[in-house]
């Protein structure tokens, strides 16, 4: 089945984000000669998301610089990119997808690469003007407008959630001179991924840049002022934080609705094996919409450019009849102020951490261990050490 598809037939890819584009290009690069159609519900050419909370929001990049490829590049590769087209149904039995306009398209191979959507807190007032999530270029443009509004009216920015996206927006807003409060419900920042010592370091970093950081802060409502615009956030303890705008950075939910409705196995994400196969023959999935299980049964959802890229390459290889499994150590980065964090590996299950270097200096690293086993290495401002960490972790993986 898989090698048959390598020679002929139509591959339909739903979603033109990092995963969808890499699947298409890897198929062509690997010699796939059949038709490749990518459909994306966003009305813009495929673009890079990471700069939306960083350089683009800071005004250092123009919109055009976000583009992944020029439209001609897709044409040259014979990739039929259809933007502004939403897939609303998958019929896995008759092997066709249905679009929002009622048209259908048959496929031989289907790849679901629908990404994820920002989680929205169920709070009174959450729909007020000036309350934002951040996933798309449209979201980012609305945030940029609200930052301008806050600057003009000297109003503070409130970020709910001390995860990567929230903290990157906080850092960008501070660099623009705005007053910023970050509300984090947990007792430390980035608690799911960072060592406690690095969470404390990030708290100090933000406070030293003038962010008002409130840990253990649980919002109860978003209060609406004149003309339907947000004016404050009330916390569960009754205190109020003034807000000219609010950014919700409280995680994402995998876009697995289409797959679920089509009868594919899902578990807060489309369940795939290491080669990107779903529970249904001929249907693959890659990127933020997926979940796979580690050897100890832990579900793993990566939300990263590298995770999407690696998985997409595995899907393409499998479709080309050369199944390969995710091989390299996952890695991720985050830019806040003048600090670049790079994470190699997965810190889940760590019970011991070792700091190398001086945390008061420009660069240092933190190793995550479970007993004696090295799981992950976080580096600050040291690309060289990060690359060495990846090699070290990959060597460890191969020896296990
Ligand atoms: C602000 C921001 C900053 C980030 N920073 C970093 C970073 O520093 N480092 C890092 O590694 N990662 C970062 N990420 C995460 C990274 O961008 C994602 O992990 C990556 O984009 C996932 O790619 P994807 O293709 O799985 O999903 P997406 O890029 O979300 O693409 C999915 C596409 O499918 C479309 N789609 C969904 N449903 C349908 C449908 N029914 N029909 C048609 N199209 C559909 C969506 O609209 C979307 O365009 C960041 C993300 C954001 C939002």
| Terminal-residue CA separation | 32 Å
Instruction: Return the CATH class of the largest domain.
Output: Alpha Beta
Radius of gyration: 22 Å
Mean pLDDT across residues: 95
Low-confidence stretches: 1-6
Physical arrangement of strands within the biggest beta sheet: 3-2-1-7-19
- CATH architecture type of the largest domain: 3-Layer(bba) Sandwich
**Count of helix runs:** 9
CATH superfamily of the largest domain: FAD/NAD(P)-binding domain
- Rough outline: globular
Proportion of residues in helical segments = 25-40%
* CATH fold node name of the largest domain: FAD/NAD(P)-binding domain
**Overall tally of structural domains:** 3
Describe this structure in words.
The protein is of the alpha/beta class and 400 residues long. The chain has 3 domains: 2-117 and 252-319, 3-Layer(bba) Sandwich (FAD/NAD(P)-binding domain), CATH 3.50.50; 131-248, FAD/NAD(P)-binding domain; 338-399, Enolase-like, domain 1 (2-Layer Sandwich), CATH 3.30.390.30. It is 26% helix and 29% strand. The protein has 9 helices and 26 strands. The chain has helices at 2-7, 18-29, 71-76, 137-153, 164-175, 196-208, 257-261, 305-319, 383-399, and strands at 10-14, 35-40, 79-83, 87-91, 96-99, 104-106, 109-112, 116-118, 131-132, 157-160, 180-184, 212-215, 219-224, 230-235, 240-242, 245-248, 252-254, 270-271, 283-285, 290-293, 299-300, 331-336, 339-345, 352-356, 364-370, 373-380. The strands form 7 sheets. It has a 5-stranded parallel beta sheet. Helix 6 links the parallel strand 11 (180-184) and strand 12. Helix 2 packs parallel to helix 8. The longest helix has 17 residues, at 137-153. It is globular. The relative contact order is 0.13. Mean pLDDT is 95; it is low at 1-6. It binds flavin-adenine dinucleotide (FAD).
């Amino acid at each position: 089945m898989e090698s048959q598809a390598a020679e002929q037939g139509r591959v339909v890819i739903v979603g033109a984000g990092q995963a969808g584009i890499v699947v298409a290009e890897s198929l062509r690069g690997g010699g796939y000669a059949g038709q490749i159609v990518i459909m994306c519900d966003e009305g813009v050419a495929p673009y890079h998301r990471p700069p939306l909370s960083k350089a683009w929001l800071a005004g250092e990049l123009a919109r055009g610089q976000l583009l992944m490829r020029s439209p001609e590049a897709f044409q040259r590769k014979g990739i039929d990119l259809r933007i502004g087209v939403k897939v609303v149904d998958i019929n896995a039995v008759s092997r066709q997808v249905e679009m929002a306009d009622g048209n259908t398209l048959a496929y031989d191979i289907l790849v679901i690469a629908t990404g994820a959507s920002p989680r929205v807190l169920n709070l009174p007032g959450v729909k007020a003007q000036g309350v934002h999530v951040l996933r798309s270029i449209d979201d980012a443009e609305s945030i940029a407008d609200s930052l301008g509004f806050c600057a003009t009216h000297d109003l503070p920015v409130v970020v709910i959630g001390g995860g990567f996206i929230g903290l990157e927006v906080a850092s960008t807003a501070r660099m623009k001179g705005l007053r910023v409060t970050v509300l984090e419900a947990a007792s430390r920042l980035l608690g799911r991924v960072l060592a406690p010592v690095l969470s404390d370091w990030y708290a100090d970093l933000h406070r030293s840049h003038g962010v008002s950081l409130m840990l253990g802060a649980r919002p109860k409502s978003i209060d609406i002022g004149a003309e339907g615009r947000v004016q404050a956030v009330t916390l569960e303890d009754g205190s109020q934080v003034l807000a000219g705008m609010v950014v919700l950075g409280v995680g994402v939910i995998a876009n697995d609705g289409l797959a679920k409705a089509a009868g594919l196995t899902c578990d807060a994400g489309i369940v795939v094996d290491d080669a990107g196969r779903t529970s249904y023959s001929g249907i693959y999935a890659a990127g933020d919409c997926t979940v796979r299980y580690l050897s100890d049964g832990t579900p793993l959802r990566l939300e990263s450019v590298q995770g999407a890229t690696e998985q997409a390459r595995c899907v393409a290889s499998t479709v080309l009849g050369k199944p390969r499994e995710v091989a390299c150590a996952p890695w991720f980065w985050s830019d806040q102020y003048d600090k670049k964090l790079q994470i190699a590996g997965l810190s889940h299950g760590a019970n011991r951490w070792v700091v190398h270097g001086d945390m008061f200096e420009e660069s240092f690293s933190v190793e995550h261990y479970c007993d004696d086993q090295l799981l992950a290495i976080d580096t600050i401002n040291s690309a060289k050490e990060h690359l060495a960490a990846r090699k070290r972790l990959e060597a460890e993986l191969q020896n296990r």
